[in-house]
Known about the structure:
Layout: H1 3-6, H2 28-40, E1 45-50, H3 56-66, E2 71-76, H4 83-93, H5 103-119, E3 123-128, H6 136-146, E4 149-150, E5 153-154, E6 156-162, H7 165-170, H8 176-179, E7 182-188, H9 193-206, H10 217-227, H11 231-247, H12 255-265, H13 306-309, H14 313-316, H15 340-356, E8 363-371, H16 375-388, E9 394-400, E10 406-415, H17 418-426, H18 430-433, E11 438-441, H19 442-450
Helix pairs in contact: 2-3, 4-5, 10-11, 10-12, 11-12, 15-16
InterPro entries: AAA_22, ExeA_AAA_ATPase_DNA-bind, P-loop_NTPase, SPOR-like_sf
Region (Disordered): 303-335
Domain ORC1/DEAH AAA+ ATPase: 42-170
Amino acid sequence: MYLEHYGLTEPPFRITPHTEFFYQGANRGATLEALQYAILHGEGLVKVTGEVGAGKTMLCRVLMERLPANIDTVYLANPSLSKDEILLAIADDLHLDLGNARAKVLIRALQEALIARYAEGRQVVVLIDEAHAMPEESLEEVRLLSNLEHGHHKLMQIVLFGQPELNDKLAAQHMRQLRERITHGFELAPLRQTDVGDYLMFRLRAAGYKGPDIFTAKAVQLISAESEGLTRRINILADKCLIASFAAGRHQVDQAEARAAIKDSGFRHRRPLRLGWPLASTGLVSLGLIAGATGGHWLTPQVAPPAHTTQPAAQTRPAPAITPPAAAPTPLPASQPATADALFDTRLTQSRSALNQQPAGTYTILLSVTPKQRRAELADFLGQAARKLPADSLYLYPTTTREGTPHYGLAYGLFTDQRAAAQALAQLPPNLQRNQPILRTVGGIREEMWKQQ
Protein backbone atom coordinates (compact mmCIF):
# COMPACT_ATOMS: atom_id res chain seq x y z
CA MET A 1 0.00 0.00 0.00
CA TYR A 2 2.68 2.53 0.97
CA LEU A 3 5.91 1.05 -0.43
CA GLU A 4 6.33 3.51 -3.30
CA HIS A 5 5.39 6.45 -1.07
CA TYR A 6 8.37 5.80 1.21
CA GLY A 7 10.71 4.35 -1.40
CA LEU A 8 10.61 0.82 0.04
CA THR A 9 11.26 -2.42 -1.81
CA GLU A 10 9.27 -4.58 0.63
CA PRO A 11 7.17 -4.22 3.79
CA PRO A 12 9.50 -3.33 6.69
CA PHE A 13 7.35 -4.35 9.64
CA ARG A 14 5.94 -7.79 8.92
CA ILE A 15 5.51 -9.85 12.07
CA THR A 16 6.39 -13.15 10.41
CA PRO A 17 10.09 -14.02 10.93
CA HIS A 18 12.17 -12.86 7.95
CA THR A 19 15.79 -13.47 8.83
CA GLU A 20 17.13 -10.58 6.73
CA PHE A 21 15.38 -8.30 9.24
CA PHE A 22 17.18 -9.77 12.26
CA TYR A 23 18.20 -6.92 14.56
CA GLN A 24 21.62 -7.50 16.15
CA GLY A 25 21.30 -4.71 18.71
CA ALA A 26 19.93 -4.95 22.27
CA ASN A 27 22.08 -8.04 22.93
CA ARG A 28 20.37 -10.05 20.16
CA GLY A 29 23.58 -10.52 18.19
CA ALA A 30 25.52 -11.52 21.30
CA THR A 31 22.87 -14.06 22.25
CA LEU A 32 23.01 -15.57 18.76
CA GLU A 33 26.79 -15.93 18.97
CA ALA A 34 26.55 -17.52 22.42
CA LEU A 35 23.98 -20.01 21.12
CA GLN A 36 26.23 -20.93 18.20
CA TYR A 37 29.13 -21.46 20.59
CA ALA A 38 27.10 -23.66 22.94
CA ILE A 39 25.91 -25.83 20.05
CA LEU A 40 29.28 -26.14 18.33
CA HIS A 41 30.99 -27.11 21.59
CA GLY A 42 28.53 -29.81 22.56
CA GLU A 43 27.08 -28.12 25.62
CA GLY A 44 24.02 -30.36 25.82
CA LEU A 45 20.68 -28.76 26.70
CA VAL A 46 20.30 -25.00 26.19
CA LYS A 47 17.33 -22.79 27.11
CA VAL A 48 16.16 -19.47 25.63
CA THR A 49 13.27 -17.60 27.26
CA GLY A 50 11.46 -14.38 26.48
CA GLU A 51 8.02 -12.78 26.65
CA VAL A 52 5.42 -13.21 23.91
CA GLY A 53 6.62 -11.24 20.88
CA ALA A 54 10.19 -10.75 22.14
CA GLY A 55 11.70 -12.36 19.01
CA LYS A 56 12.38 -15.98 20.04
CA THR A 57 11.16 -17.52 16.78
CA MET A 58 13.17 -15.00 14.73
CA LEU A 59 16.29 -15.89 16.75
CA CYS A 60 15.60 -19.58 16.18
CA ARG A 61 15.26 -19.12 12.40
CA VAL A 62 18.46 -17.05 12.17
CA LEU A 63 20.30 -19.65 14.23
CA MET A 64 19.22 -22.36 11.79
CA GLU A 65 20.58 -20.36 8.86
CA ARG A 66 23.92 -19.53 10.45
CA LEU A 67 24.93 -22.91 11.77
CA PRO A 68 27.69 -24.64 9.75
CA ALA A 69 26.80 -26.93 6.87
CA ASN A 70 27.84 -30.07 8.80
CA ILE A 71 25.05 -29.52 11.34
CA ASP A 72 21.64 -31.03 10.65
CA THR A 73 18.81 -29.10 12.28
CA VAL A 74 15.42 -30.42 13.38
CA TYR A 75 12.80 -27.73 14.09
CA LEU A 76 9.78 -28.69 16.21
CA ALA A 77 7.15 -25.94 16.23
CA ASN A 78 4.22 -27.86 17.71
CA PRO A 79 4.28 -27.85 21.53
CA SER A 80 1.49 -30.42 21.90
CA LEU A 81 3.40 -33.39 20.48
CA SER A 82 3.31 -36.50 22.64
CA LYS A 83 6.57 -38.20 23.59
CA ASP A 84 6.15 -40.77 20.81
CA GLU A 85 5.28 -38.10 18.26
CA ILE A 86 8.46 -36.21 19.17
CA LEU A 87 10.51 -39.27 18.26
CA LEU A 88 8.62 -39.66 14.99
CA ALA A 89 9.02 -35.96 14.13
CA ILE A 90 12.78 -36.08 14.73
CA ALA A 91 13.12 -39.30 12.72
CA ASP A 92 11.09 -37.77 9.88
CA ASP A 93 13.25 -34.62 9.74
CA LEU A 94 16.35 -36.79 9.63
CA HIS A 95 14.76 -38.83 6.79
CA LEU A 96 14.76 -42.07 8.76
CA ASP A 97 12.19 -44.57 7.50
CA LEU A 98 11.07 -46.23 10.72
CA GLY A 99 7.42 -46.91 9.87
CA ASN A 100 5.23 -47.52 12.94
CA ALA A 101 8.01 -48.79 15.20
CA ARG A 102 7.54 -48.85 18.97
CA ALA A 103 9.22 -46.22 21.14
CA LYS A 104 12.12 -48.47 22.23
CA VAL A 105 12.83 -49.44 18.64
CA LEU A 106 12.63 -45.80 17.59
CA ILE A 107 15.17 -44.70 20.19
CA ARG A 108 17.57 -47.51 19.27
CA ALA A 109 17.28 -46.76 15.56
CA LEU A 110 17.67 -43.05 16.23
CA GLN A 111 20.81 -43.63 18.29
CA GLU A 112 22.34 -45.79 15.55
CA ALA A 113 21.58 -43.12 12.95
CA LEU A 114 23.12 -40.43 15.16
CA ILE A 115 26.27 -42.50 15.67
CA ALA A 116 26.57 -42.95 11.90
CA ARG A 117 26.27 -39.19 11.38
CA TYR A 118 28.80 -38.53 14.11
CA ALA A 119 31.25 -40.86 12.34
CA GLU A 120 30.76 -38.78 9.20
CA GLY A 121 31.60 -35.59 11.08
CA ARG A 122 28.01 -34.41 11.24
CA GLN A 123 26.07 -33.10 14.23
CA VAL A 124 22.32 -32.98 14.97
CA VAL A 125 20.62 -30.07 16.73
CA VAL A 126 16.94 -30.14 17.75
CA LEU A 127 15.31 -26.71 18.15
CA ILE A 128 12.02 -26.83 20.07
CA ASP A 129 9.81 -23.73 19.86
CA GLU A 130 7.06 -22.91 22.40
CA ALA A 131 8.68 -25.38 24.83
CA HIS A 132 6.79 -23.88 27.79
CA ALA A 133 3.58 -25.43 26.41
CA MET A 134 4.95 -28.97 26.09
CA PRO A 135 3.36 -31.73 28.17
CA GLU A 136 5.61 -32.81 31.02
CA GLU A 137 5.91 -36.33 29.61
CA SER A 138 7.25 -34.81 26.39
CA LEU A 139 9.77 -32.72 28.32
CA GLU A 140 10.86 -35.92 30.06
CA GLU A 141 11.39 -37.50 26.64
CA VAL A 142 13.58 -34.51 25.75
CA ARG A 143 15.68 -35.24 28.83
CA LEU A 144 16.11 -38.87 27.79
CA LEU A 145 17.10 -37.85 24.28
CA SER A 146 19.73 -35.51 25.72
CA ASN A 147 21.35 -38.57 27.31
CA LEU A 148 22.22 -40.15 23.94
CA GLU A 149 26.00 -40.28 23.85
CA HIS A 150 28.87 -41.93 22.02
CA GLY A 151 31.96 -42.08 24.18
CA HIS A 152 32.23 -38.64 25.74
CA HIS A 153 30.30 -36.87 22.99
CA LYS A 154 26.65 -35.88 22.94
CA LEU A 155 24.94 -37.23 19.84
CA MET A 156 22.20 -34.60 19.88
CA GLN A 157 22.13 -30.97 21.00
CA ILE A 158 18.73 -29.63 22.14
CA VAL A 159 17.69 -25.97 22.41
CA LEU A 160 14.41 -25.08 24.16
CA PHE A 161 12.72 -21.80 23.21
CA GLY A 162 9.87 -20.71 25.46
CA GLN A 163 8.11 -18.05 27.47
CA PRO A 164 9.07 -17.34 31.12
CA GLU A 165 6.51 -19.98 32.12
CA LEU A 166 9.13 -22.53 31.03
CA ASN A 167 11.29 -21.45 33.97
CA ASP A 168 8.31 -21.95 36.31
CA LYS A 169 7.69 -25.42 34.93
CA LEU A 170 11.34 -26.44 35.25
CA ALA A 171 11.47 -25.12 38.82
CA ALA A 172 9.16 -27.92 40.00
CA GLN A 173 10.86 -30.55 42.15
CA HIS A 174 9.93 -33.42 39.84
CA MET A 175 11.55 -31.60 36.88
CA ARG A 176 14.96 -31.23 38.57
CA GLN A 177 16.61 -33.93 36.44
CA LEU A 178 15.82 -31.98 33.27
CA ARG A 179 16.63 -28.63 34.90
CA GLU A 180 20.08 -29.80 35.98
CA ARG A 181 20.96 -30.86 32.44
CA ILE A 182 20.51 -27.31 31.09
CA THR A 183 24.04 -25.97 30.75
CA HIS A 184 23.19 -22.51 29.38
CA GLY A 185 20.18 -20.24 29.77
CA PHE A 186 19.60 -17.06 27.77
CA GLU A 187 16.88 -14.43 28.09
CA LEU A 188 15.58 -12.11 25.35
CA ALA A 189 14.73 -8.92 27.21
CA PRO A 190 12.35 -6.30 25.74
CA LEU A 191 13.96 -3.42 23.86
CA ARG A 192 14.72 -0.28 25.83
CA GLN A 193 13.44 3.06 24.53
CA THR A 194 16.95 3.95 23.36
CA ASP A 195 16.93 0.77 21.23
CA VAL A 196 13.47 1.21 19.71
CA GLY A 197 14.46 4.12 17.44
CA ASP A 198 17.49 2.20 16.15
CA TYR A 199 15.32 -0.89 15.62
CA LEU A 200 12.75 1.05 13.57
CA MET A 201 15.40 2.58 11.32
CA PHE A 202 17.16 -0.76 10.92
CA ARG A 203 13.96 -2.38 9.66
CA LEU A 204 13.32 0.53 7.28
CA ARG A 205 16.88 0.39 5.88
CA ALA A 206 16.62 -3.39 5.44
CA ALA A 207 13.45 -2.77 3.38
CA GLY A 208 15.25 -0.35 1.07
CA TYR A 209 14.54 3.04 2.69
CA LYS A 210 17.27 5.63 2.01
CA GLY A 211 15.81 8.85 3.43
CA PRO A 212 16.08 10.62 6.81
CA ASP A 213 14.44 9.39 10.03
CA ILE A 214 10.73 8.82 9.55
CA PHE A 215 9.76 8.43 13.22
CA THR A 216 10.13 11.50 15.42
CA ALA A 217 11.49 11.22 18.96
CA LYS A 218 7.97 11.70 20.40
CA ALA A 219 6.56 8.96 18.16
CA VAL A 220 9.36 6.58 19.21
CA GLN A 221 8.65 7.36 22.85
CA LEU A 222 4.95 6.55 22.45
CA ILE A 223 5.62 3.35 20.49
CA SER A 224 8.19 2.22 23.04
CA ALA A 225 5.82 2.76 25.96
CA GLU A 226 2.82 1.11 24.34
CA SER A 227 4.74 -1.88 22.99
CA GLU A 228 6.60 -2.42 26.25
CA GLY A 229 9.66 -3.07 24.09
CA LEU A 230 8.27 -6.25 22.49
CA THR A 231 9.35 -6.41 18.86
CA ARG A 232 6.12 -7.90 17.52
CA ARG A 233 4.09 -5.08 19.04
CA ILE A 234 6.61 -2.54 17.77
CA ASN A 235 6.20 -3.93 14.24
CA ILE A 236 2.40 -3.78 14.43
CA LEU A 237 2.38 -0.19 15.73
CA ALA A 238 5.01 0.99 13.24
CA ASP A 239 3.10 -0.51 10.31
CA LYS A 240 -0.09 1.25 11.39
CA CYS A 241 1.84 4.51 11.84
CA LEU A 242 3.18 4.36 8.28
CA ILE A 243 -0.30 3.73 6.90
CA ALA A 244 -1.71 6.68 8.83
CA SER A 245 1.10 8.97 7.64
CA PHE A 246 0.67 7.77 4.07
CA ALA A 247 -3.07 8.42 4.20
CA ALA A 248 -2.36 11.97 5.37
CA GLY A 249 0.10 12.52 2.51
CA ARG A 250 3.04 12.88 4.90
CA HIS A 251 6.49 11.29 4.95
CA GLN A 252 7.03 11.49 8.69
CA VAL A 253 5.45 9.78 11.68
CA ASP A 254 4.75 12.05 14.64
CA GLN A 255 2.60 11.90 17.78
CA ALA A 256 -0.70 12.03 15.89
CA GLU A 257 0.07 8.92 13.82
CA ALA A 258 1.52 7.10 16.83
CA ARG A 259 -1.57 7.82 18.93
CA ALA A 260 -3.85 6.65 16.09
CA ALA A 261 -1.90 3.37 15.87
CA ILE A 262 -2.03 2.92 19.64
CA LYS A 263 -5.77 3.55 19.72
CA ASP A 264 -6.34 1.02 16.97
CA SER A 265 -4.15 -1.68 18.56
CA GLY A 266 -5.41 -1.53 22.14
CA PHE A 267 -2.63 -3.72 23.53
CA ARG A 268 -3.16 -2.63 27.12
CA HIS A 269 -6.72 -3.94 27.05
CA ARG A 270 -5.79 -7.41 25.85
CA ARG A 271 -5.61 -10.39 28.13
CA PRO A 272 -2.08 -11.81 28.37
CA LEU A 273 -1.55 -14.84 26.13
CA ARG A 274 -0.21 -17.53 28.43
CA LEU A 275 0.47 -19.99 25.64
CA GLY A 276 2.24 -17.48 23.43
CA TRP A 277 1.14 -18.75 20.02
CA PRO A 278 1.42 -15.69 17.77
CA LEU A 279 -1.89 -14.38 16.55
CA ALA A 280 -2.43 -12.63 13.24
CA SER A 281 -2.90 -8.91 13.78
CA THR A 282 -5.29 -6.95 11.62
CA GLY A 283 -7.31 -3.86 12.34
CA LEU A 284 -8.61 -0.49 11.22
CA VAL A 285 -6.58 2.63 11.78
CA SER A 286 -8.68 5.53 13.04
CA LEU A 287 -8.41 7.04 9.56
CA GLY A 288 -10.44 4.11 8.22
CA LEU A 289 -7.71 2.23 6.34
CA ILE A 290 -7.06 -1.48 6.76
CA ALA A 291 -3.72 -2.04 8.47
CA GLY A 292 -1.12 -4.16 6.71
CA ALA A 293 0.57 -5.58 9.79
CA THR A 294 -0.49 -9.19 9.30
CA GLY A 295 1.42 -12.34 9.93
CA GLY A 296 1.58 -15.38 12.08
CA HIS A 297 2.93 -18.74 12.89
CA TRP A 298 2.26 -22.26 11.66
CA LEU A 299 -0.63 -22.38 14.14
CA THR A 300 -2.33 -19.34 12.64
CA PRO A 301 -4.43 -19.63 9.44
CA GLN A 302 -3.08 -17.47 6.64
CA VAL A 303 -5.30 -15.77 4.08
CA ALA A 304 -4.25 -16.73 0.59
CA PRO A 305 -3.69 -14.01 -2.03
CA PRO A 306 -6.66 -13.47 -4.34
CA ALA A 307 -4.78 -14.93 -7.28
CA HIS A 308 -4.82 -18.34 -5.63
CA THR A 309 -8.54 -18.32 -4.98
CA THR A 310 -9.64 -17.70 -8.55
CA GLN A 311 -7.95 -20.74 -10.10
CA PRO A 312 -10.21 -23.65 -11.03
CA ALA A 313 -10.20 -26.33 -8.38
CA ALA A 314 -9.27 -29.02 -10.89
CA GLN A 315 -6.00 -27.23 -11.64
CA THR A 316 -4.95 -26.64 -8.05
CA ARG A 317 -5.68 -29.94 -6.34
CA PRO A 318 -2.62 -32.15 -5.85
CA ALA A 319 -2.55 -35.40 -7.75
CA PRO A 320 -4.24 -38.22 -5.81
CA ALA A 321 -0.99 -40.18 -5.45
CA ILE A 322 -1.73 -41.20 -1.87
CA THR A 323 -4.47 -43.68 -1.10
CA PRO A 324 -6.34 -43.77 2.21
CA PRO A 325 -5.71 -46.69 4.57
CA ALA A 326 -7.49 -49.91 3.85
CA ALA A 327 -9.25 -49.70 7.20
CA ALA A 328 -10.63 -46.26 6.45
CA PRO A 329 -14.40 -45.80 6.43
CA THR A 330 -16.31 -45.13 3.27
CA PRO A 331 -15.43 -41.58 2.18
CA LEU A 332 -17.85 -39.00 3.43
CA PRO A 333 -20.22 -37.61 0.82
CA ALA A 334 -18.55 -34.70 -0.92
CA SER A 335 -20.50 -31.54 -0.22
CA GLN A 336 -20.14 -27.94 -1.23
CA PRO A 337 -21.95 -25.86 1.41
CA ALA A 338 -22.96 -22.40 0.28
CA THR A 339 -21.06 -20.57 3.02
CA ALA A 340 -17.83 -20.95 4.97
CA ASP A 341 -19.85 -21.34 8.19
CA ALA A 342 -21.90 -24.15 6.67
CA LEU A 343 -18.77 -25.98 5.56
CA PHE A 344 -17.29 -25.50 9.02
CA ASP A 345 -20.34 -26.98 10.75
CA THR A 346 -20.53 -29.89 8.30
CA ARG A 347 -16.89 -30.87 8.69
CA LEU A 348 -16.95 -30.48 12.49
CA THR A 349 -19.93 -32.84 12.74
CA GLN A 350 -18.65 -35.46 10.29
CA SER A 351 -15.01 -35.42 11.36
CA ARG A 352 -15.56 -36.81 14.84
CA SER A 353 -17.20 -39.97 13.46
CA ALA A 354 -14.54 -40.40 10.77
CA LEU A 355 -11.59 -39.99 13.16
CA ASN A 356 -13.12 -42.28 15.78
CA GLN A 357 -13.24 -45.14 13.24
CA GLN A 358 -9.54 -44.96 12.35
CA PRO A 359 -6.74 -47.08 13.88
CA ALA A 360 -4.69 -45.07 16.39
CA GLY A 361 -1.57 -45.42 14.20
CA THR A 362 -3.19 -43.75 11.18
CA TYR A 363 -1.40 -40.56 10.17
CA THR A 364 -2.88 -37.21 9.23
CA ILE A 365 -1.46 -33.76 8.38
CA LEU A 366 -2.21 -31.04 10.92
CA LEU A 367 -2.69 -27.83 8.95
CA SER A 368 -3.64 -25.46 11.77
CA VAL A 369 -4.62 -25.03 15.41
CA THR A 370 -6.67 -21.89 16.06
CA PRO A 371 -8.31 -20.34 19.16
CA LYS A 372 -12.04 -21.00 19.30
CA GLN A 373 -12.91 -17.29 19.40
CA ARG A 374 -11.29 -16.90 15.97
CA ARG A 375 -13.65 -19.37 14.34
CA ALA A 376 -14.43 -16.97 11.47
CA GLU A 377 -10.75 -16.88 10.42
CA LEU A 378 -10.50 -20.65 10.57
CA ALA A 379 -13.72 -21.00 8.55
CA ASP A 380 -12.17 -18.82 5.83
CA PHE A 381 -8.98 -20.89 5.90
CA LEU A 382 -11.05 -24.09 5.70
CA GLY A 383 -12.80 -22.66 2.63
CA GLN A 384 -9.44 -21.97 1.00
CA ALA A 385 -8.25 -25.50 1.77
CA ALA A 386 -11.47 -26.96 0.33
CA ARG A 387 -10.76 -25.19 -2.97
CA LYS A 388 -7.40 -26.95 -3.15
CA LEU A 389 -8.20 -30.33 -1.55
CA PRO A 390 -11.25 -32.64 -1.38
CA ALA A 391 -13.54 -31.21 1.29
CA ASP A 392 -14.33 -34.66 2.68
CA SER A 393 -10.61 -35.17 3.43
CA LEU A 394 -10.49 -32.16 5.78
CA TYR A 395 -11.09 -32.91 9.44
CA LEU A 396 -12.05 -30.40 12.17
CA TYR A 397 -11.87 -31.31 15.83
CA PRO A 398 -12.10 -29.49 19.19
CA THR A 399 -9.08 -29.35 21.48
CA THR A 400 -7.66 -27.25 24.30
CA THR A 401 -4.28 -25.99 25.45
CA ARG A 402 -2.88 -27.22 28.75
CA GLU A 403 -4.20 -24.00 30.27
CA GLY A 404 -7.71 -25.01 29.18
CA THR A 405 -8.12 -22.50 26.34
CA PRO A 406 -10.47 -23.98 23.68
CA HIS A 407 -9.08 -24.33 20.15
CA TYR A 408 -9.99 -26.05 16.88
CA GLY A 409 -7.60 -28.28 14.97
CA LEU A 410 -7.76 -28.67 11.19
CA ALA A 411 -6.18 -31.77 9.63
CA TYR A 412 -6.00 -33.21 6.12
CA GLY A 413 -6.05 -36.81 4.92
CA LEU A 414 -5.78 -40.27 6.49
CA PHE A 415 -2.67 -42.33 5.67
CA THR A 416 -1.59 -45.85 6.60
CA ASP A 417 2.03 -44.95 7.31
CA GLN A 418 4.38 -42.06 7.92
CA ARG A 419 5.96 -42.16 4.46
CA ALA A 420 2.61 -41.79 2.68
CA ALA A 421 1.67 -38.87 4.92
CA ALA A 422 5.04 -37.19 4.33
CA GLN A 423 4.61 -37.52 0.56
CA ALA A 424 1.16 -35.96 0.76
CA LEU A 425 2.51 -33.12 2.91
CA ALA A 426 5.16 -32.39 0.27
CA GLN A 427 2.41 -32.19 -2.40
CA LEU A 428 0.32 -29.60 -0.54
CA PRO A 429 -0.22 -26.30 -2.37
CA PRO A 430 2.17 -23.52 -1.27
CA ASN A 431 -0.50 -21.48 0.53
CA LEU A 432 -1.30 -24.51 2.72
CA GLN A 433 2.37 -25.18 3.48
CA ARG A 434 3.23 -21.69 4.70
CA ASN A 435 1.94 -22.51 8.22
CA GLN A 436 4.48 -25.35 8.45
CA PRO A 437 2.00 -28.26 8.75
CA ILE A 438 3.14 -31.32 10.69
CA LEU A 439 2.29 -35.01 10.89
CA ARG A 440 0.09 -36.26 13.72
CA THR A 441 -1.34 -39.64 14.61
CA VAL A 442 -5.09 -40.08 14.82
CA GLY A 443 -4.61 -41.65 18.24
CA GLY A 444 -2.97 -38.48 19.57
CA ILE A 445 -5.75 -36.33 18.13
CA ARG A 446 -8.46 -38.60 19.58
CA GLU A 447 -7.01 -38.17 23.06
CA GLU A 448 -7.37 -34.41 22.66
CA MET A 449 -10.93 -34.79 21.36
CA TRP A 450 -12.00 -37.07 24.21
CA LYS A 451 -10.90 -34.47 26.75
CA GLN A 452 -13.62 -32.26 25.29
CA GLN A 453 -16.40 -34.75 25.90
